[in-house]
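Field log, afternoon session.

UNIT: design team B
ACTIVITY: writing a sequence onto a fixed backbone
BACKBONE:
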């Protein structure tokens, strides 16, 4: 039998993969349009689809792991899964306390209107009971995953997202880098800022956060606000001004100038910077880069290249960050 050198085999495999990837999917006047060209054309959409596919698969993996560890623990104890869940989840979650009920009632007074506490209590009790049950279930499944050494082998899609020298905070050499694309006029971005603060407080120098701009076209003041933040960055006051922007309800040009003075910026330099559109190209660069990696709305985050779209809760960030920290730790030589 004739044997081919390894390098020749590798070359043949590469050529074969290229040929498959560029298979004609259409013709115009006899000229082929290859699949590679089509994929390049719709790359942002494909990235988004890959992220959604991974999330669906990961939910399935986690659900099956939960079923498996519950079954193993129930078998080890000689009970049914139903009995195990009753003893370890339902009973340990506990009933809502009066303080918890009142807290929910006060937080939702506007939505409840004139409804008195006594009338709202049964609904609140059920809501809090479900919340506590879900929290206890999540914690218990986590304990069992550790006990039975559950390991997820499913690999998430990763996209290379540059920081482009944009404002950053956190550990300079952090193992986890979060690149966030945001819009100062987006209510979901305002909400997500609280989560980002929670992440930075929880992880400290283990995480580096990079802000990039993606002002949406239908937000009247978002683009100029992004330019204003860049002008503040030029004077070393980005994060102070960034916080002001997200807290403001008015992002008109005059208000942008007023806030500049409130954080101690040189007003003349700031006004000149804003009027000259000095950072217009930089903001447009962020927008182009965002579109290239599948961002179509805000906020959008990339945690070590893993896409997290929308104003996700802290727990979702924690899940991904913890996985990345674990992977980073495992990759270090012992």
């Amino acid at each position: 039998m004739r044997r081919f050198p390894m390098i020749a085999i590798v070359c043949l495999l590469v050529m074969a993969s290229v040929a498959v990837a560029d298979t004609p999917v259409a013709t115009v006047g006899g000229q082929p349009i290859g699949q590679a060209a089509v994929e390049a054309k719709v790359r942002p959409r494909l990235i988004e689809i890959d992220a959604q596919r991974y999330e669906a698969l990961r939910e399935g993996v986690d659900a099956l792991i939960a079923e498996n560890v519950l079954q193993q623990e129930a078998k080890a104890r000689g009970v049914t899964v139903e009995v195990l869940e009753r003893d370890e989840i339902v009973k340990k979650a506990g009933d809502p306390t009066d303080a918890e009920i009142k807290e929910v009632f006060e937080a939702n007074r506007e939505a409840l209107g004139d409804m008195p506490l006594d009338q709202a209590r049964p609904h609140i009790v059920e809501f809090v009971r479900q919340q506590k049950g879900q929290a206890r279930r999540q914690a218990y499944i986590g304990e069992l995953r550790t006990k039975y050494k559950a390991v997820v082998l499913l690999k998430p899609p990763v996209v290379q997202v540059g920081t482009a020298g944009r404002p950053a905070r956190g550990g300079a050499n952090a193992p986890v880098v979060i690149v966030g694309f945001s819009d100062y006029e987006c209510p979901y971005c305002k909400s997500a800022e609280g989560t980002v603060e929670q992440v930075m407080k929880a992880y400290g120098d283990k995480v580096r956060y990079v802000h990039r701009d993606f002002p949406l076209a239908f937000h009247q003041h978002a683009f100029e606000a992004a330019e204003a933040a860049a002008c503040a960055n030029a004077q070393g006051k980005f994060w102070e001004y960034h916080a002001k922007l997200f807290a403001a309800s008015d992002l008109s040009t005059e208000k942008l100038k007023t806030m500049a003075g409130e954080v101690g910026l040189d007003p003349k330099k700031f006004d000149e910077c804003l009027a000259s559109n000095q950072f217009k190209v930089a903001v447009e660069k962020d927008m182009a880069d965002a579109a290239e990696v599948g961002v179509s709305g805000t906020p959008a985050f990339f945690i070590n290249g893993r896409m997290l779209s929308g104003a996700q809760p802290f727990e979702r960030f924690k899940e991904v960050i913890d996985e990345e920290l674990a992977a980073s730790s495992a990759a270090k030589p012992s």
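LOG NOTE: The longest strand covers residues 176-182.
NEXT ACTIVITY: expression trials, pending approval
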